[in-house]
Amino acid sequence: MYGEISGMEMLDGLSVLNSFPLAELEVGKHLYWHIGNLKVHGQVFITSWVVIAILITASIAASRNIQRIPSGIQNFMEYALEFLRDLAKNQIGEKEYRPWVPFVGTLFLFIFVANWSGALVPWKVIHLPEGELASPTSDINTTVAFALLTSLAYFYAGISKKGVVKYFAGYAQPTPILLPFRVLEDFTKPLSLSFRLFGNILADELVVGVLVLLVPLFVPLPVMALGLFTSAIQALIFATLAAAYIGEALEEHH
């Protein structure tokens, strides 16, 4: 009958569309290195080494010829150090913040550079046997590792200052009713830290990737600029929360 489309004709039409896709974006494929019985996530290692190399190079350049009146990259790095000191001081406290500046600063700088690398470095140009390169923080393994390090840091801070018994006794203050909630909080803190950072960075890279495929000229540029801003905010949020958790562990309960 005129106007009817057979199932075979529909399949032929779908095969034609599949032969000429308008856009394609693969998610979930990864490059793995096999070292003995160990399976290593190669993509994350490659991009993490690039971020580490950038930070080491900037540090060497800033401290190679230190001037009494700083200028250039030395001035920028001293400003960054002062910013990180203030961040740690505001969250941990003026008396106890100094030993934690390197930890909080490393978290912020690595996450900041890693986030921006996802927007500024053309990782997609480098072809891999499987998967593709992207920001290290767009992988859940990286963000979970940072979240677990943060948990270990605030446990160490509290126990080293108060002792094991006094630290965990604080879970029941000011009332024992809070004990299960405090224990649950220790599990939710790393979960919220890791998934917040991972979700925001991955979503930003996916949105930019889809827009570049669909509208490859000027439309993705405002989204990329917004992504740079949100990437910096996410690094600041992670470092601030990490410092706040350490400060909370060091706080004396009365």
From TrEMBL:
<keyword id="KW-0066">ATP synthesis</keyword>
<dbReference type="GO" id="GO:0031676">
    <property type="term" value="C:plasma membrane-derived thylakoid membrane"/>
</dbReference>
<keyword id="KW-0812">Transmembrane</keyword>
<keyword id="KW-0793">Thylakoid</keyword>
<protein>
    <recommendedName>
        <fullName>ATP synthase subunit a</fullName>
    </recommendedName>
</protein>
<comment type="function">
    <text>Key component of the proton channel; it plays a direct role in the translocation of protons across the membrane.</text>
</comment>
<keyword id="KW-0813">Transport</keyword>
<feature type="transmembrane region" description="Helical">
    <location>
        <begin position="197"/>
        <end position="219"/>
    </location>
</feature>
<feature type="transmembrane region" description="Helical">
    <location>
        <begin position="40"/>
        <end position="62"/>
    </location>
</feature>
<keyword id="KW-0472">Membrane</keyword>
<feature type="transmembrane region" description="Helical">
    <location>
        <begin position="225"/>
        <end position="246"/>
    </location>
</feature>
<dbReference type="InterPro" id="IPR035908">
    <property type="entry name" value="F0_ATP_A_sf"/>
</dbReference>
<keyword id="KW-0138">CF(0)</keyword>
<feature type="transmembrane region" description="Helical">
    <location>
        <begin position="140"/>
        <end position="159"/>
    </location>
</feature>
<comment type="similarity">
    <text>Belongs to the ATPase A chain family.</text>
</comment>
<dbReference type="InterPro" id="IPR023011">
    <property type="entry name" value="ATP_synth_F0_asu_AS"/>
</dbReference>
<dbReference type="Pfam" id="PF00119">
    <property type="entry name" value="ATP-synt_A"/>
</dbReference>
<dbReference type="GO" id="GO:0045259">
    <property type="term" value="C:proton-transporting ATP synthase complex"/>
</dbReference>
<dbReference type="InterPro" id="IPR000568">
    <property type="entry name" value="ATP_synth_F0_asu"/>
</dbReference>
<feature type="transmembrane region" description="Helical">
    <location>
        <begin position="100"/>
        <end position="120"/>
    </location>
</feature>
<dbReference type="InterPro" id="IPR045082">
    <property type="entry name" value="ATP_syn_F0_a_bact/chloroplast"/>
</dbReference>
<keyword id="KW-1133">Transmembrane helix</keyword>
<dbReference type="GO" id="GO:0046933">
    <property type="term" value="F:proton-transporting ATP synthase activity, rotational mechanism"/>
</dbReference>
<keyword id="KW-0375">Hydrogen ion transport</keyword>
<keyword id="KW-0406">Ion transport</keyword>
